[in-house]
Amino acid sequence: MRGQVRTIGMFQLSEESRGARVRELKYVAPAEALAAAEAALDLHCLPDPEHPEGIVESIYFDDDFFSSYWEKVNGDSYKRKVRLRWYAEGIPPTGCGDIPAFLDVKDRMGALREKRHVAFRANKELLCRARLRDPALRDLLRGAAMAAGLPFTDALVPTIGIRYRRRRYVCPWTGARINLDSDICSLRANTDLFSGEAPLGSERIVCEAKAPAAREWPWGETLMRLGFRMQSFSKYGLFMEMRMEGSI
């Protein structure tokens, strides 16, 4: 029934609030395959006409029990991630003030994905420089959620920060949106949750393909020959595991 509220995890989202449903597949390879992967995608696909390349930064939120992380580890059918995200394109390298940012509520149901993407503005220094234990970050999430009409829970706290370089493509044959992510790292962690916050890196690259329905990707076989493997992969899950191991 339209307007029905569905509860998953830490939010309630009505049918009107839920984002578009797409099918998302991920290909993962060692970082040394980057140049060959870029050449393959340049050959088969077109650069995204608006944002072909840039730096993506995110702060992920979880509760004290790391419920979002354990949903991934345990292979739950329904998984939810909540994050604040911003992009380096167009942001002045110096100076303070507000910059464009987004609240993402991302649900996974098997290979299907639903995402609520809410635009707002936030203080650059708070997003980029604040310690993740700073309560102002939780207040920022609360304000963005309430302004968008999304129910908010104070159980959520900033957990880790993740940064990577993204190249964006469009497949001319299927209309799929393709992201190639490299230089994946976690530069911040909440010291109330972890014993340290030393920067962490990943020796992997990830290619994500997103489309409304399952399709054969003309470039998929090429990626597999380059050493990519189709698999479930979570940047948040990877760095949470590394942070938790470092806290033992």
Molecular structure report:
- By secondary structure, the chain is an alpha+beta fold.
- It has one domain: Hypothetical Protein Pfu-838710-001 (Beta Barrel).
- The chain has six helices and 13 strands.
- Strands 3-8-7-6-5-9-10-12 form an eight-stranded antiparallel barrel, surrounded by four helices. The chain has a two-stranded antiparallel ribbon with strand order 1-2.
- The longest helix is centred in the middle third of the chain and has 13 residues, at 135-147.
- Mean pLDDT is 85; it is low at 1-19.
List keywords for this structure.
23% helix; eight-stranded antiparallel barrel; 13 strands; alpha+beta; disordered N terminus; Hypothetical Protein Pfu-838710-001
Structural class: alpha+beta
Sheet with the most strands, sense and barrel status: 8 strands, antiparallel, barrel
Strand content: 35-45%
Per CATH, the architecture is Beta Barrel
Helix count equals 6
Note the gap between the termini: 47 Å
The radius of gyration computed from the alpha-carbon positions, rounded to a whole number of angstroms, is: 18 Å
Short account of what is shown:
The protein is of the alpha+beta class and 248 residues long. It has helices at 34-44, 67-73, 124-129, 135-147, 220-225, 235-247; strands at 5-8, 11-14, 21-30, 46-47, 53-62, 78-87, 98-109, 112-123, 157-170, 177-189, 200-201, 204-211, 229-230.
